[in-house]
Design goal:
Elements: H1 2-14, E1 29-34, H2 39-53, E2 57-62, H3 75-93, E3 96-99, H4 111-124, E4 128-131, H5 139-151, E5 172-176, E6 190-193, H6 198-207, H7 209-212, H8 218-221, H9 230-251, H10 253-260, H11 262-267, E7 271-276, H12 285-291
Helix pairs in contact: 2-3, 2-6, 3-6, 4-5
């Protein structure tokens, strides 16, 4: 009997809701999860800035403290440094941020962590949740995606947690873009032009010096020849990050043209793209356009 009741509940939680736009006269509430203190910033700082500027409430959460993400320092000092960096990013973007005290490289898809994620979503009363896809070279990225998917639906269950109130509905869950091909490649439903706030995103990236400036940073260590000059090294890494956002716009140019029209779609230099997760509330493209910035809302 319980199985039958649950099957009846699935359409209520996951069905397309074309009237969602009418439900959001109040500011939207968006929460974005990254595996490390820089992941959400890299994938969604542009759209977060746009949302915040429009009066919506945005929060970034890092699932780990990033305490091994460097080649010359680690532990508590690095964790504190990375927390301070994303706090400066949050100030620049006009959003809130939180870093969980889980060691870098040790995130697991446990029931305890599922409860933590669910409570974060419930406490924020999120309308939209952003996260990694669960297909990635890094286990922390994969498990972040798994945990958000595992928290779907139960965030709306009244008695799942006594710490936080349930969400009014199952949130919309969207995945960040990535280049992984198996089991299937990233399939965006929406791409957002971020040209108008690109400089703010670059300022955010520049504020995360432990990742995008230090000679011992991960980005520097992937260079074939690491410059001795701090200024030169920082600029080379920043240019690489700009190129990634430009590549998103080029890769999904047809989608940008569909969304913005031929003239504007062809002129967009930088973009962030998102895939709709089937475990969250299912909405059509027009509804998403009404919830995302830059589409004449």
């Amino acid at each position: 009997m319980r199985t039958f009741q649950y099957l009846l509940l699935i359409p209520l939680l996951l069905s397309v809701n074309p009237d969602l736009r009418a439900q959001h006269e109040e500011p939207l509430r968006i929460i974005a999860f990254g595996a490390h203190p820089d992941d959400a910033e890299l994938k969604a700082a542009g759209v977060a800035t746009l949302w915040a500027a429009a009066g919506h409430k945005v929060k970034f959460v890092s699932m780990t403290n990033g305490d091994i993400g460097h080649f010359e320092m680690a532990g508590g000092p690095l964790a504190q440094r990375r927390k301070a960096e994303v706090e400066e990013c949050a100030r620049l973007l006009g959003i809130e941020t939180q870093v969980l005290d889980i060691h870098d490289g040790e995130l697991m898809p446990t029931l305890e962590n599922r409860k933590i994620v669910a409570d974060l979503i419930r406490d924020w009363q999120a309308d939209i949740v952003l996260c990694h896809r669960p297909y990635d070279y890094h286990a922390d990225h994969r498990y972040t995606g798994e945990l958000i998917q595992d928290a779907a639906v139960i965030v709306a269950a009244p008695f799942f947690s006594s710490k936080t109130p349930p969400t009014k509905k199952n949130p919309i869950i969207l995945f960040y873009s990535d280049g992984f091909e198996r089991p299937y490649p990233f399939d965006p439903i929406i791409a957002v032009a971020i040209d108008d706030v690109a400089e703010t995103k670059w300022d955010c990236i520049s504020a995360m010096t432990s990742q995008f400036a230090d000679a011992g940073s991960w980005q520097a260590m992937t260079l074939s020849d690491i410059p001795d000059s701090d200024t030169e090294r920082r600029q080379i890494i920043l240019d690489r990050m700009k190129a990634r956002n430009s590549a998103v716009a080029d890769l999904y140019r047809d989608l940008l043209i569909e969304l913005y029209g031929t003239e504007k779609g062809n002129s967009i230099q930088y973009a962030e793209a998102f895939e709709l997760c089937q475990y969250g509330s299912q909405v059509d493209l027009e509804t998403l356009k009404s919830l995302f910035p830059t589409f004449g809302n």
